[in-house]
Amino acid sequence: MTTRVRHPYLDHPGPLAFAHRGGAADGLENTAAAFRRAVDAGYRYIETDVHATSDGKLAAFHDATLDRVTDATGRIADLPWSEVSHARVAGSEPVPLFEEMLAAFPAVRWNVDVKAESALLPLLELIERTRTWDRVCVGSFSEGRVSRAQRLAGPRLATSFGTRGVLGLRLRSLGVPTTPRVSAVCAQVPESQSGVRVVDHRFVRTAHARGLQVHVWTINDADRMHALLDLGVDGIMTDHIETLRDVLEDRGTWV
């Protein structure tokens, strides 16, 4: 059973299916090609990441450097967009600007992990300029970063908990009194962390009691997807977009 919707971003029938980095299983993570493939498969929620270049452009890219997945090297924060734009993921696909992806896929809602402080203000300015408050949820491992985003944007911005907020929610589910940030609309969490279980009945029940949805990352196994959905989680992020779609179709909840 899902919790009530606290923000238009979450207004969707059934569990939310997130294409993690657009569906990273084929090696083209965070590219227009990956996003297009996810959209063509029926996905309306896509998870991505943003870094700011040295001239303030927002690249949809996970790592701080280009080295791991592209044919280029260097820290994105140290490079102008003119250089980053020449990098090719897996040797073939360009690094996209998040603004262009926001425009190219107008039916998509984006879950954006803000990877660096320098990307926060450009992202909020972009959302304001494009009036896409209902289409973006901002997350970060840094509780301070998402808290600053919420203070700057107010309730029109959907945010998830950072690490400290998730810890507080987990402790509360175990009976330890805590006061997590009340402005978040969801908790986006791993199923387990360092061998310690995070998501169980108590965690989901506690989150729902506080009006929070629970989205779990990154789940690529069909049995684990079914088990989490049986627990009542509200969304799953996956690299294997066909697997999650098949699971939700089997359960009659794919929309």
UniProtKB/TrEMBL annotation:
Question: Per its UniProt record, what Gene3D superfamilies does this chain match?
Answer: Phosphatidylinositol (PI) phosphodiesterase
Annotated GP-PDE domain residues: 15-248
Pfam families linked to this entry: GDPD (PF03009)
UniProt-listed PANTHER family: GLYCEROPHOSPHORYL DIESTER PHOSPHODIESTERASE, GP-PDE DOMAIN-CONTAINING PROTEIN
- The protein in question is named Glycerophosphodiester phosphodiesterase
Its source organism is Streptomyces flavofungini
The organism's taxonomic lineage, starting at the top: Bacteria, Bacillati, Actinomycetota, Actinomycetes, Kitasatosporales
